[in-house]
Amino acid sequence: MKMSELLVSMTCVGILALYTVPTALRIIGGAKVTAALLQLHQTSKQSRYDAIVSYGQVRSVAIFTGDKPGIAECLNGVCGKPVPLPSGIEIRSTFRGIDARVAGRAGADRATLISWASDTNSGIGGSFGQHGAVTFSHPWTRKKFCLVRGGSYGNSGEYVVRKDLDCR
Predict the structure, then answer these.
(1) Residue 11 CB coordination number (10 Å)
(2) 44: Cβ contacts below 8 Å, ≥ 6 apart
């Protein structure tokens, strides 16, 4: 192989790598965000259902942040072992902290709770006095998802999943 052929092929490989590596990282980051949201969505759905069928209990989902983000189900304030989320996920929450009765205080930087109760003024499986949003993002992508509860949905316990620009 001549030196000019080697130079041309190395230039082509360099140009291809210039575009494929950031694209691959963006795709991987998007997949991690989607997996984390799916995990939260399924855990929340199961927790609310458990609150509906188990009269007199408060069911919660604890979302742990920090070095090892994870999600755990809680029963009457006692949480199980957190299931780890994909690495690199960044979590922002406006729900109450794990050590607080008010949103955004005492422990919200390390864990937040989303709770449902079997019997509320809003009905079975209603919100346990909480309105807020949990936003998942990843530094490799601009894609983000959020789980929003309250607002126009009131205290019925319903939540909606929004993405990208709809997360505010």
Answers:
(1) 10
(2) 61, 114, 147, 159
